[in-house]
Design brief:
This protein is an all-alpha fold. It contains five helices and no strands.
């Protein structure tokens, strides 16, 4: 809980406690605080035991820490009754995305694997009336020609 408290912070807290409560009352305050923490822990343990007793024998392995969502999910994934590890290992997202991109750009799947050239989106055919020709590659503009300007995109 307090894993990131360093020596400087502890010394500061001790000095503040001495200044606030004084050296005479400080031992009594520490005893009261420890007694209160002990009572809270006893109350918590007895409440947990009461809940376990009320749940019955089928919940004898029940741990309250399992109610933490992260721990619950981790515990359920360790069981792996559904074969999730096999599904996760058999699915290659990069390969699937490459296949989809190749299909969209009209390239053959093996051409991309052999190091085929990648080009931009396919150009619309002149006689197709706005239809996209998947086999035609767009013409590259000349070196001194500015790129096309799309007024709708700006």
């Amino acid at each position: 809980m307090f894993n990131d408290i360093g020596v400087f912070e502890i010394v500061t807290l001790v000095i503040l406690a001495v200044l606030i409560f004084g050296p005479d009352k400080l031992p009594k305050v520490i005893q009261d605080v420890t007694r209160t923490i002990r009572k809270i822990r006893q109350f918590s343990d007895s409440a947990k035991q009461d809940i376990r007793n009320e749940l019955g024998p089928e919940f004898k392995d029940f741990e309250f820490e399992d109610l933490n969502p992260k721990r619950f999910i981790r515990k359920q994934l360790e069981n792996d009754d559904l074969g999730l590890k096999e599904i996760r290992n058999g699915f290659d997202l990069r390969k699937e995305m490459a296949e989809v991109a190749d299909a969209v750009h009209g390239r053959e799947g093996d051409a991309a694997d052999d190091g085929g050239s990648r080009s931009g989106p396919p150009a619309a055919s002149a006689n197709g009336g706005g239809r996209v020709d998947m086999h035609k590659r767009p013409a590259k503009p000349a070196a001194d020609e500015p790129p096309p300007f799309d007024a709708d995109a700006t």
